[in-house]
Amino acid sequence: MKKTYGVAALALLLVAGCGSGAAEPPAAPAASTPAAGKAADAASATPSATPVQAAGNWSKWGLTALPPAPAAPADKPVKLTATGPVPVFSEVPTKDKVVFVTIDDGAEKDPKFVEMITDLKIPISMFLTRDIVKDDYGYFKPLQALGNHVHNHTTDHAQLSKVSAEKQKSEVCDAQTALTQQYGKAPLLFRPPYGDGAHTPQLNTSVQQCGPRAIVLWRESMQIHDMQYQAADKKLKPGDIVLAHFRGPKDLKGETMTEMFAELLRRIQEQGFAVARLEDYIQAPTG
Ligand SMILES: [Zn+2]
Q1: CA of 106 to the centre of ligand 1 (A)
Q2: What does the DSSP 8-state code read for residue 174?
Q3: Among 83, 89, 46, 74, which Cα is nearest to 212's?
Q4: Cβ–Cβ under 8 Å, residues 99 and 269
């Protein structure tokens, strides 16, 4: 699919959000090494909600329970380094029947969504745009307290391939500073709006200068009711990263954030996948 950047970044944001639907070939992350035995040992220690509780919580939202995610792999399939170029990826190499849910921007701040995530304990990774969340940084803190991580999605959602190196750097670095200050931890990951510029040396340099250690794209993007797939067979694959947005009725033709998210979970459930935590499959730089 041809990328159609240009006319109005805002229109792209509203219609397609971060997703252009373009298939971006991911840079191959570090090759996975066989260490299945260790991962299996960790599984038995993982606590989970009782089946009765879980069933009740899912039905409250009109949903059938997803399969539980397997234990986090002991040997992380993606290993990040402390220095040097950052990898760009849209999926995680794993055979686990899991996908990863990422939610971008931060415009809609629906308390019902916090309730939903608290009930269902679906792991999410939040790529927040400073100027979109700064009126209420606090909204995202209960989501963070559930174990969900905050990542960097620029200061004002600029189309990064269209701005100067200096502006690009401030988009990443100033967001990194604000998000670190607000959420107490420096974002490990960065996502450029629309995926734009992800594979350019200039953006890679900007990201390296500001702190995040990987650029994360996606394989599927959630619309209002349907999932948009890059793969021709329109099926989820193990390790796929799914893009969604904090959006409300204004941008969802009257649907609420929780209705959109319930549809997202149905698309995953009907294909038999679990949702795992992206950060559990990534080894942060050591030292
Ligand atoms: Zn975005």
Answers
A1: 9
A2: H
A3: 83
A4: no
How many whole angstroms from 104 Cα to the centroid of ligand 1? 5
Q: 286 C-alpha to center of ligand 1: Å?
A: 29
Confidence of residue 286 (pLDDT cuts 50, 70, 90): confident
Interior/surface letters 109-121, b for 16+ CB within 10 angstroms, e for the rest: bbeebbebbebbe
Task: Quote the CA–CA distance of 38 and 74 in Å, as a whole number.
Answer: 6
Taking alpha carbons only, the member of 33, 15, 5 closest to residue 221 is 15
Contact between 20 and 1 (Cβ < 8 Å): yes
CA 10 – ligand 1 centroid, Å: 10
Task: Name the nearest CA neighbour of 278 among 16, 25, 29, 22.
Answer: 29
pLDDT tens track for 267-278: 999 999 999 999
**Ligand 1 geometric centre to CA of 128 (Å):** 8
